[in-house]
Amino acid sequence: MTSLTVKTAMPVARCVLGLATVFAPMVVAAMERPVSTRPGPAPIVRLLANLNDNKQAKPATVMELVWKGADIDGDGAPDFANPTGGQPRGHDAFGDGWFGARRDAGSRDHEGVDYTATAGQDVHAPVSGYVTKIGYAYAGDTSLKFVEITNPALHYAARAFYVTPTVEVGDAVRLGQSVGKVESLQSHYPGITNHVHLEILAPGGDRVNAAGLIKPTMVAKVETPDTAAD
Questions:
Q1: What is the pLDDT of residue 16?
Q2: Are the beta carbons of 225 and 141 closer than 8 angstroms?
Q3: How many whole angstroms separate alpha carbon 91 and alpha carbon 104?
Q4: Does the pLDDT of residue 8 top 70, yes or no?
Q5: Cα–chain-centroid distance for residue 144?
Q6: Are 116 and 83 in the same domain?
């Protein structure tokens, strides 16, 4: 081998040796940790998994029935409230519960609105003001009572009948505050729908239709998984 050949070969050998030094650890590492041939999840499986993750905890909007009282003084707040949260009484064996319904074979008109209720539930103040009277629903019968609340600013009064009062004459009450419990009417009118008879007295003392002052409306309510479970 000539000296020229030796001189030419030596740099090549050194290059090969250098490359071997660089790549040898990589080859060893690859042999020790071979690439897994186990197949991953199919694309459709990954897509469904992602969709399932995105489905959780999205709030739902439901419609809820609420009762809105009229704002007669124009201050932006309601001045009347449903005493039980129930619907006006429909027709049963004892007649109808709406204002002006016939009573006593047509000899008189119903002077209030009957709001359905469950015996023992709270009765809420239909107006704010002061308790001005606690009386008996029927003369000579002390078992069924009413609570009268007068609002001196509005000059309206409300009487809620068939109530066991938890307030006394002179007490100040807020709109919607509990003023008593619903009494059962079954011993007086077997089979009747239990209710609270509400009379609204306008300035001057004339009775007016409570259903015209307390109206049902549907409002949207956002329901989360937590509130749906309640």
A1: 46
A2: no
A3: 15
A4: no
A5: 32
A6: yes
